[in-house]
Structure formats: C-alpha cells, structure tokens
Write a structure and sequence with these properties.
With 394 residues, the chain is of the alpha+beta class. It is 26% helix and 31% strand. The protein is elongated, with a radius of gyration of 22 Å.
Length: 394
Amino acid sequence: MVEKEVKSGEHFDVIIVGGGITGAGLLKDICSNGKKVLMIDKHEFMSQTSSRSSKMLHGGIRYLESLDFNLVNEALQEKILWTKLTPKYAKRIPFILPIFKTSKYPFWFYQLGLELYDFLSEYKNGQHQIIRQDEILYYAPDILQLNLKGAGIYFDAVMNDKMIGIHVIKRALNNYQNAVALEKTSITSIKNENDQVRIKTAGENNLELTASDIVFATGPFTDQLLKDLNIPWEDKMLLSRGSHLWLKKDALNIKYPIVIQSYDDRVIFVIPHSDRILVGTTELPYSGDPAKAEITEEEINYLIDEVNFFFPGKKVDKTSIIDSYSGVRPLVKEEGKKHGKVSRTHKLFHPYQNTHVIIGGKYTTFRVMAQDTTKHIFSKNKWSYRENGFFDYL
C-alpha cells in the first residue's frame, strides 16, 4: 500500500474511524467520488471482527426463516459481485444441506426454501439440487445416516475475509491521491466547532486534524468508544461472540461445505479449505473487550460434540484441532430478540449533524453499508455522488 504523510492541522472532507471491512468500503467509495478522506484504526487494518468471520460470502439462507427477504436478496447480489471482482479471494462452491426426519421442518419446506434462495438471487447463483440419501455419501461419506432423508445443494462462496478488505484498501490508496489511511492510530478526543469536527489521535501518529464529517465504522467497539469520547450515545450493540475451530484436513472426509441445523437450533458450518477444515460457529453473549475475545473450553467441546454427532464415521477430538479463533459480531439490539434472532440489517445514526455511526450489517453487504453512509454525507453537504461501478473495484 502507498504510504502518505499526514500533518497536524490538515483538513479532510471525511475522516473514517475503523479500518475493518466497512471502513474499507467507505474509504473506496468516498475517495473515488473526489473527496479527501482519511481512515484510521487503533489496530492493524482488517485485524479484528472482519478477519474473524466464518470465511463465507453468503446470502444468509437461514435468514429466510425470519422472512428477511430484502437482506437475503441484497447479500446474494453482493456475493455474486465479489466472486467476480476478487476470484483470487472468493470462490463460489456448492454447499450441502442434509435433511433428516428429525430436522426442524419437513423435507418439502427445505426444497421450497432453496427455490426461494434461487429466486432471490435473480437466478444468477446457480440452480439448487435435491439429492437422495445414497447420493449425499459421495460428498460426505462420514455423514450421519440415521434418519437421513436426503440433502439440498445450493451455492454460496468461501472467502479470505482479510484479503478482500486489504484489496479494497489498496485499490483506494494506490489509485487515488486523496485517500490516506493510518494503522495503529486511535482517536482520543473529538470536538464539534464551526460546522466541522476536530480530533486528536495517539499511537503511532499523534495528530490534530479537522474534517467536515466523521464516520465511526467501529463495529463491536462502538458503544464503548463513543462513551469514551463523550459523544451523546445510548448503547445500541448486542455483542455476540462467534468461535471457530480449524481442524486437520484429514479429520473429516468431505468434499464441500456441510450446513448442519443443530439440535439447539444453531446452524453449524463445516467447510473444507485447501489445507484444513473450518468448523463454526457459536453465538454467545459477550461483554468484554472485543479485541480480547477468545474461544472457551465450553465452545471447543460444543463444536467437537456437534461434529462427532453428525459425522460418526470419524472420531474428532482435541488432537484434531490445528487452531481456533473468536470474533465479536456487532449486532444491533432489537426489542425482545436474542442472539441468533437479531436481523443483520445495518443501521445509520447521527449523534451530531456531521457525526455518523454505521453499525450492524454483515460482511457480505459491506459495500452497500458504505454506499448508504456515503450517500447520506454527500446529500447533506450537497456534494455530487456517483455510485461505484464494477470496474472501480478491480
């Protein structure tokens, strides 16, 4: 990435706080529309929640259950776009959904859901299939056969979450002189004065800067950071820790990702990568520092038990584990809804006229989140906006 010097006293049209995937999208969208923009992050870019996902670009087939059709349609279109834009980091592959007699819904219901998934992709996603019990053994010989009726096959994508974000940031910094980004730089104070914001930073860069507008794209760090900065704000986050296991490649004999609806109504993904297998995820309330989230012994045992129940042909234990990681999802609180049932639709807030906070959403829809935020800022300032096209991201 191109390194550009920033000096105290410098003015930007927009400052972005947060160098995850949403911040990356904002950086690219704003600079390609001709405005001078700075992105800062307390850590390294793409080092927190945005690199601790389930490594999927997906429409969110489980959101059909909550009738969140607009989100699924939006996510499917974005997934299709990014598999074309970054084929090195995102690849469309078939996902296998086993259906048992003991499954939550009858067989026909899953078939209807897969047909709806195809429809919401505007039939650009690949045609789903329904296969018999004996046919699923070709894809997953070790799968549980007791009460197994068959399976659905649909298409989503496996990705390198960190590298997609780095790709977007590099495109912005390398192609636009008006884009600047600083890692290991934290915001320590903010003041609103004369229709602009004035901030101070610390870390590797101790600066005093001004901007017409500032955006907080800080994910699970948002509530605490805004309170630390004395910005008028009531907690809006419902933090959820999602933990994953990396298993040895030979721990399971599977050709494609397997999607399991667990006995506790969780969805577990078992995803083979080139040299190992990813298993996840959990979804538990979290109240600590998102940067320090770690998998617990309880979560490890839970994921191993799930794998062993649905793949009795293999015995997975702790010796099968290569690595593990946890990320904190920045869910938005919804009255009466718990973890796992909260909508992943993003929301935009404005504590001050020139201070904007984007929270919620999901990795797959980061470009839409960035565009919605940018459009609001540009409309407020009466700046001309051109929506990014396909080739802007190549």
